[in-house]
Each structure stands twice: as structure tokens, then as C-alpha cells.
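User: quick one, sequence for these C-alpha cells?
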């Protein structure tokens, strides 16, 4: 059963008209792990972020499932021409960082999960600063949702979108030569060790790192490479080390 709030109407079709031409121009693509998105019931989808094109491919990924997610996105997105209108009409959730309203976005996400909807979030909050495009340390909002709601937490990774548009190295759209973009969902990340223990700052920090290591490991499978043992810092020296890894990374 698809919730009434998830029915797809005119604005979803308008979004598709924006997304698919970008996909066609950019080249071949591969969408994997669609079976990990529950056909019904609440779920939290956490995704890595390597390019401003990621939301387009995330949207196309969900277009191949029966679910219509609610994305948490920076409020600046809602002020952009066309994109902002689409985000508003599709019921996406603005995140107003550094303001008294910042917590409102998580409350709205809480309500969506309680209603049985799918919520999607980029835990890093922006494009990774890792020079090799591995995940960096995330913000704690995604972990708070994952800890407070007993719902599946699905990792979703993008790869090669950064070859088409790399915001920090040239800021140019490079669809040619065509690249093979991969978007893959994985099995739920086990968050049981963090649930039922409140939401103290240290617990949320540990839960956030746990989420990001789950994304890192799935991305390593997609890339076919050994991942780094640490998460790239957010401009701070407290880089997180994976307790399951002993190599220097």
C-alpha cells in the first residue's frame, strides 16, 4: 500500500522531466539494491554526497521504487528557481542551519517517519571534503532520527557523479566523455546498539560515525577499493577511526 501522501502527481512528473534529460546526457547508469527499499512502512535512507548532481540520481533511483521520499535539504535549495518550486510542491523538508528553526526540520522528519513515510538525508550535510571522495564525518541529525525511530536505516551511495560535476575542482559540467554513474542501496545498517539509550551528544556522535562507516563500506564495494580507516574530518582534528580497522588507512 502506498500512502496517500506518497501518491505521484503532476509535480513528480515535472521533476522527472528535469532529472531524466540530465541522466541521458551524462551517460550510462546503474541502479542497484532497489529491493532494499521497503515497499511499505517507514524507513530512513542515508546517502553519501559527492556532487550537486547526487539529488537528481537519488530522485531517479526512487522513481524506480514504489516510494516517494521526503528529503531534508538546505533551505537555500528552496530559494533556487525551478528547483525550489519543485522541492516545495513535492513536500520536501528545508533545513535552516544556525537558526532557531533548525530543529523544526528534524521534527518534521519525525512526523513523517511516524506516519510510515520514507525520509532521505545526506548525513554529511554537504559535499564531502575528502579529496578521494570517501565519506567525511557526518552531522548528528541523521543519527538522531536513526536512534529515536525503530525503522530500517538504508545506506545509499553514489559514484561517478563527481566526474560529471565536481564543485570543488573547477565547477564545470563535464558530461563528455560519458561516465557510468552507479547508485546502490544496501541492507539496513544495524543501529540497535544505540537505541533506547537517550540521545546524549557522545552517543549521537558514535552513532553518526557508525552510519558513515556503513556508507563508506558500501561505497568501497561499489568502487572495488580498500577504504580509508578514518573518516575525513569536518575541518576539525577529531578524525574518527574505524574500531574494526587496525591498518593506518
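Assistant:
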Amino acid at each position: 500500500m502506498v500512502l496517500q501522501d506518497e501518491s505521484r502527481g503532476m509535480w513528480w512528473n515535472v521533476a522527472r522531466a528535469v532529472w531524466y534529460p540530465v541522466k541521458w546526457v551524462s551517460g550510462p547508469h546503474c541502479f542497484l539494491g532497489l529491493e532494499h527499499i521497503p515497499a511499505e512502512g517507514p524507513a530512513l535512507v542515508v546517502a553519501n554526497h559527492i556532487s550537486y548532481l547526487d539529488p537528481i540520481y537519488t530522485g531517479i533511483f526512487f522513481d524506480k521504487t514504489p516510494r516517494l521520499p521526503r528529503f531534508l535539504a538546505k533551505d537555500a535549495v528552496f530559494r533556487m528557481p525551478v528547483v525550489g518550486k519543485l522541492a516545495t510542491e513535492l513536500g520536501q523538508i528545508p533545513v535552516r542551519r544556525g537558526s532557531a528553526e533548525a530543529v523544526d526540520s528534524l521534527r518534521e522528519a519525525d512526523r513523517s517517519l511516524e506516519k510510515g513515510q520514507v525520509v532521505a538525508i545526506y548525513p554529511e550535510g554537504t559535499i564531502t571534503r575528502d579529496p578521494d571522495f570517501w565519506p567525511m564525518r557526518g552531522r548528528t541529525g541523521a543519527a538522531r532520527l536513526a536512534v529515536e525511530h525503530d525503522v530500517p536505516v538504508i545506506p545509499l551511495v553514489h559514484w561517478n557523479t563527481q566526474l560529471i560535476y565536481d564543485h570543488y575542482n573547477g565547477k564545470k559540467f563535464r558530461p563528455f566523455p560519458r561516465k557510468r554513474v552507479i547508485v546502490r542501496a544496501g541492507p539496513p545498517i544495524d543501529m540497535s546498539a544505540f537505541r533506547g539509550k537517550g540521545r546524549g551528544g557522545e552517543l549521537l556522535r558514535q552513532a553518526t560515525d557508525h552510519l558513515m562507516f556503513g556508507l563508506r563500506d558500501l561505497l568501497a564495494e561499489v568502487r572495488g577499493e580498500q577504504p580509508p580507516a578514518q573518516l575525513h574530518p569536518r575541518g576539525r582534528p577529531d578524525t574518527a577511526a574505524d574500531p574494526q580497522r587496525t591498518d593506518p588507512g
